[in-house]
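User: Last request for today: this protein with magnesium ion, please.
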Amino acid sequence: MMKTKTSVKNAQTEYVRKIKRRQFLIRLYQILIFITFLFLWEYTAKHGIINDFIFCCPSKLFATFVSMLKDGSLLHHIGITLYETLIGFVIVILGSLGMATLFWWNQTLSKVLEPYLVILNALPKSALAPVLIVWLGANKTTIIVCACSVAIFGSILNLYTGFISVDADKIKLIKTLKGSRFQCLKLVVLPSNVPNIISIMKVNIGLCLVGVVIGEFLAAREGLGYLIIYGSQTFKMSNVLLSILILCVIAMLLYTLLQHIEKKLAEYF
Amino acid sequence: MKKLGIPLLEFFNVNYSYHTISCETQTLKDISFKLNKNEFISFVGPSGCGKTTLLNLTAGLLPLSSGAIRINGKPREESDVNIGYMLQKDHLLEWRTIYRNLTLGLEIQKKKDASHIEMMEELLKTYGLWDFRNAYPRQLSGGMRQRAALIRTLALSPEILLLDEPFSALDYQTRLNVSNDIGSIIKEKGISTLLVTHDLAEAISMADKVIVLSKRPGTIKSIIPIEFGDNRRTPESARNAPEFNKYYNQIWEAIHDENEDFS
Ligand SMILES: Nc1ncnc2c1ncn2[C@@H]1O[C@H](COP(=O)(O)OP(=O)(O)OP(=O)(O)O)[C@@H](O)[C@H]1O
Ligand SMILES: [Mg+2]
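Assistant: Here's the final one, the structure of the complex with magnesium ion:
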């Protein structure tokens, strides 16, 4: 009896150890790939195998990073891009929640507008950006509108689909309890769509960032998108690559943040 | 039966048809019956004959095609009698605790006052769910969930209770227990009830009358009064009573004469 118990326990610790070891190896390989990549890049650039004027190199990137950090310009550009992205994101989320609710409420309206939404959603938004500049001028508003235009149509369609696929019997339940339509929305439709809303948010934060960068390419004097386009025109490749790298990091951080919120919410649902 | 005067619920020649683009489906045809106070009526009939439709009409979830439904002598729309409706699945909201699921009806009808809450908590204790009040529905067994759904319905002190195959999602043993429990609460509180079920034994064990419906369009084939010698019966004692088999056969025949594929 005792013996089997300890052996069961050993099997369990053995199993946990195996899994832990595997996770450790995966992380290790990921880091190794990154370091090898940096090393090869630096090495080939230093030895003239690739042209370091065009392809830059890690040490130059780092130097640029430090100097821009020191004169404060980097944080300024990052701040602008983040600000525009977050404003766009909030507008997209509130706007699409509002529209999806309206469509749920009035399904005739949704039927009428659906084809237009589908077309607008399928339209490549970068085609829209130059038009927005002509209409709204080269300013922050344009960039935020650009960010919204990338994300909002798909967001409305997805949310609305989530709203109308709520279990009809749950709605019936609220009605048997003499609930109004508003109560159906508040007590069943919205809460049962929380996971859906979060996953739509995860997609949209990335889309807003895309929209902001497109907008900044065309209409900005500041922001990471501007740094990229200005740097490429003046062949300051270290600026360009640094900005791209930072965009990667921002996208990842924003996504992780939402994932974290999702986990917290999952404890309630 | 027990008390003369106006019945609590009356159907007069009720018809109902569903409309779709392609066709009209007549579902209920010429349904007339009375439900007295404290009375329990079970409906049995083939699948698709309109039993759920009949309950939906009573609850006011569907508009009548023709005929009339009177509650306490008044047209259904004008009556203020509280009707509780329990569906086949419990439909507890997964994101609310059991306690907050049970106060859902009170919340919707703005009746979350001390007396209603107290009554609801009393039910919660009686049915052994008090310790689970802060749990989420997924942490409960099927039988417990169904009891919770019943408490949610009873919390509004309904005078008429509509039960649409409320036990069919449960396994046999749980179903016997839960139906016994529910049968006794209903008797004890004197709630007038319409029960829809596929289970003839269940129909007989709780009912004062069993109404047999024909296949679609559902019409009333026969109304069979159920009486046992022992008038202090429980669903359990009814199942063991000598008359039980007689009723069972009688209803079985009523369903099967003409319609071969009752499922
Ligand atoms: N919303 C609807 N639109 C059109 N037809 C419907 C609708 N709901 C039900 N029906 C039809 O009406 C008939 C009766 O439906 P109902 O749900 O009342 O039957 P039921 O007796 O409760 O069946 P079951 O025993 O399977 O629950 C069925 O044939 C069904 O196809
Ligand atoms: Mg049914």
